[in-house]
Design a protein that fits this description.
3 domains, 9 helices, two-stranded antiparallel sheet, single chain, six-stranded antiparallel beta sheet, 227 residues, Arc Repressor Mutant, subunit A, SH3 type barrels, alpha+beta
Length: 227
């Protein structure tokens, strides 16, 4: 019999609680705090009595006509959001699942990923800052330490040496003026490339196209290295 710590599958009540807290966290990110709107979402997506349960556990509180997370609720919601978005990155960047399959599987994984696994996934992926949809991934202790116990599969382009090969994983250029230009040149997720040069600019070859990139752009392009 093992004496190691075990993580049993969560009960339905725990899953419902985490699901609801994750939804409140996401609505808060979108600037939606109104009790009426949040209650409607929770009742439709989780259960009619989930808000009462959250309130009885001291995970939410009311501020006038708004709903807010308590300190404990905020920490739990943050952890759920982090696990869900890391799962999305793993499913997208490493397992290359289709877009349609990512979210439902991430919704399942967010409830069973242990703290240790979450840290390892984050390290493996190079401490990603955003999920595939562009939502921020709350940082963990591993991000603060940046102690790479595993060699990351996903790294930013500026971390590579000349001669490296791989595929574009994702871009952190949602609001950058050069985004559409780069996409038109073929820098889209899944595209293979060769890195020919790193100084004075980063020169990569994508198909028949050669692109020169400044460091500030290379830092925002994350790639999956060829193993």
């Amino acid at each position: 019999m093992t004496t190691e710590k075990k993580y049993p599958l969560p009960a339905q009540e725990v899953e419902d609680t985490e699901e609801a807290l994750g939804m409140i966290w996401r609505q808060s990110e979108l600037g939606i705090h109104a009790k009426k709107e949040v209650l409607t979402l929770l009742e439709d997506a989780v259960s009619p009595d989930i808000y009462a349960k959250l309130k009885s556990k001291g995970l939410v509180r009311e501020e006038a006509e708004n709903i807010a997370l308590t300190r404990e609720g905020n920490q739990l919601a943050r952890d759920v959001a982090r696990r869900h978005r890391l799962a999305e990155r793993l499913l997208s960047d490493v397992l290359a699942l289709s877009t349609q399959a990512i979210d439902p599987n991430a919704c399942q994984l967010e409830h069973i990923i242990s703290p240790e696994v979450a840290e390892s996934i984050c390290t493996l992926l190079g401490h990603p800052q955003q999920c595939p949809h562009g939502s921020p991934i709350p940082p963990g202790k591993c991000c603060e330490k940046v102690a790479e116990t595993l060699s990351p599969i996903i790294v930013s382009l500026d971390k590579l040496e000349a001669g490296s090969k791989g595929r574009i994983a994702y871009l952190l250029l949602q609001n950058h003026p050069d985004l559409h230009k780069l996409l038109s040149l073929g820098l889209i997720p899944g595209t293979p490339f060769n890195l020919h040069q790193t100084f004075p600019t980063y020169v990569i070859e994508i198909g028949e196209t050669t692109v020169a990139l400044e460091k500030e752009i290379a830092e925002k392009i994350f790639i999956r290295r060829s193993l």
